[in-house]
Design brief:
Layout: H1 15-34, E1 38-39, E2 45-47, H2 48-54, H3 60-65, E3 67-70, E4 76-79, H4 84-93, E5 102-111, E6 123-132, H5 137-153, E7 159-165, H6 169-185, H7 192-200, H8 202-205, H9 211-217, H10 223-226, H11 229-244, E8 250-251, E9 263-271, E10 279-285, H12 289-292, E11 300-306, H13 307-315, H14 318-322, E12 329-333, H15 336-351, E13 356-358, H16 365-375, E14 379-383, H17 385-390, E15 393-397, E16 405-410, H18 412-420
Parallel strand pairs: 1-5, 7-8, 12-13, 12-14
Antiparallel strand pairs: 2-4, 3-4, 5-6, 6-11, 7-9, 9-10, 10-11, 14-15, 15-16
This protein binds adenosine-5'-triphosphate (ATP) and magnesium ion.
Adenosine-5'-triphosphate binds next to strand 6, strand 10, strand 11 and helix 13.
């Protein structure tokens, strides 16, 4: 019978990869704790309308990429393609916004039916931040700094922060008219995707990946020139504050988020080491979204970072791989009585907080010691037939060449004390 395979674009995370993932997750969790940002967990499945309203029908995500189906009750459901809409729905549904501003983060799988390639999957993972009820320019910079510092703490180098301002909704409405008129006059010179977007989502044309369209757009009216004085002053304040924090950035007037509820700050953090899928983290201000989803008018800013792309960057960097934790103790034993003592010893040490693996193979000691070396453990506990009879354990320092046995006869309790106290002396 043919063996079954996972679906295209849906990856298994195998044991050898998981340490790096857990390292990223643990670092992020600690980073958010220090930033007074609380985790929120929402369902993977939501009513389809949430994303139609919360992301927008005119986007690729809603238009082409969603996993949507009818459940057994004939309701249209969608596997979440991103986290923001769900977090905002939950905040409205549970009245969180009446309790004051919310500092929230989330993590987990997202689903988009895209063409899979390096750094682009159909089930992928994001970590994201949402600051709900925050209006001032410093909040934009705080959100950016949390992302920037997390990536720095993880040791990701060579990153670039790209920044733009989309202005207020009035600014954008004015600009939209200018842009649509300009694009209409050049319809024949645009790629097919961009032609289709002229009216549905004209700002996204600025983001086109087509080189001919990009060349043409060099002459297009600029969004920056359409910003009101107040919007320009706000954007200047964001830049000033980033400079004061020493966070470098480049202005990218083509960086857009094509939906009406996005406003003012938009940013991406990119890496030149990722090829075509260069964006690790993207975010911006979405002052109109909470209201769009039926909540009270609430200014907000957030971002999401792609775990697969981040892990890809980190796996190119040996220091961050080595930061993942290893075993403390590897227990080898031979014979039935020895195995029973090994089991009790492993359990006792785990209860005391040590990371312990018990070799259950019953193979020759030589083979078990090879595995002990490969395990990365600091110590090996050795239990042969005689040790089992006497109720004692041998201890071997696996970091010393040849693994010299430092103390032949320790009771399990004495071994615990010795390991807790650090390296025992012969
Ligand atoms: P892209 O232009 O690469 O498609 P996007 O604008 O669709 O990105 P967002 O919706 O802003 O991406 O999601 C934030 C981050 O999530 C991206 O910067 C990226 O790191 C990651 N991401 C998005 N889609 C995928 C995917 N299909 N596979 C892996 N990571 C993804
Ligand atoms: Mg995309």
């Amino acid at each position: 019978m043919a063996s079954l395979q996972s679906l295209r674009g849906m990856a298994d995370l195998l044991p050898e990869q998981i340490r790096l993932w857990q390292h990223v997750e643990a670092t992020a969790r600690e980073h958010f704790r220090r930033s007074a940002i609380t985790e929120i967990r929402t369902p993977l499945l939501e009513v389809t309308e949430l994303f139609a309203r919360g992301i927008g029908e005119a986007t690729d995500v809603v238009g082409k990429e969603m996993y949507t189906f009818l459940d057994r009750g004939e309701r249209s459901c969608t596997l979440r393609p991103e986290g923001t809409a769900s977090v905002v729905r939950a905040a409205i549904q549970h009245g969180l916004l009446s309790q004051g501003p919310q500092r929230l983060w989330y993590g987990g799988p997202m689903f988009r039916y895209e063409r899979p390639q390096a750094g682009r999957l159909r089930q992928f993972h994001q970590i994201g931040l949402e600051l709900l009820g925050f209006a001032d320019a410093c909040s934009d910079v705080e959100a950016i700094a949390v992302a920037w510092d997390l990536l720095a703490e993880l040791g990701v180098g060579g990153l670039e922060l790209q920044l733009n301002s989309l202005g207020s909704s009035e600014d954008r409405a004015r600009y939209r008219e200018l842009l649509v008129a300009w694009l209409e006059q050049r319809r024949g010179q645009l790629d097919a995707d961009s032609q289709a977007r002229i009216h549905s989502n004209p700002l996204r044309v600025l983001d086109s990946k087509n080189p001919d369209t990009q060349a043409l757009l060099a002459e297009a009216p600029s969004l920056a020139s359409a910003l009101s004085d107040a919007s320009q002053a706000r954007f200047a304040a964001v830049q000033q504050s980033l400079k004061a924090l020493g966070i470098p950035f480049v202005l990218n007037p083509r960086l857009v988020r094509g939906l009406d509820y996005y406003s003012h700050t938009a940013f991406e953090i990119t890496s030149s080491q990722l090829g075509a899928q260069a964006t690790v983290c993207g975010g911006g201000r979405y002052d109109g979204l909470v209201q769009q989803l039926g909540g009270p008018a609430t200014p907000a800013i957030g971002w999401a970072l792609g775990m697969e792309r981040l892990v890809l960057l980190l796996s190119q960097n040996e220091a961050s791989v080595a930061a993942a934790p290893a075993l403390d103790l590897y227990v080898v034993s031979r014979g039935e009585a020895a195995a029973a003592l090994a089991l009790a010893l492993a359990r006792r040490c785990r209860q005391a907080g040590l990371a312990v693996e018990r070799d259950a193979s019953g193979a020759a000691f030589g083979k078990q010691f090879k595995r002990a070396d490969r395990s990365g453990a600091r110590w090996a506990a050795v239990i042969g037939e005689q040790e089992a009879l006497d109720g004692v354990v041998g201890l071997k320092d696996l970091r010393v060449d040849g693994g010299e046995q430092v103390d032949k006869r320790l009771t399990p309790e004495a071994l615990l004390v010795a390991l807790a106290a650090g390296p025992p002396r012969p």
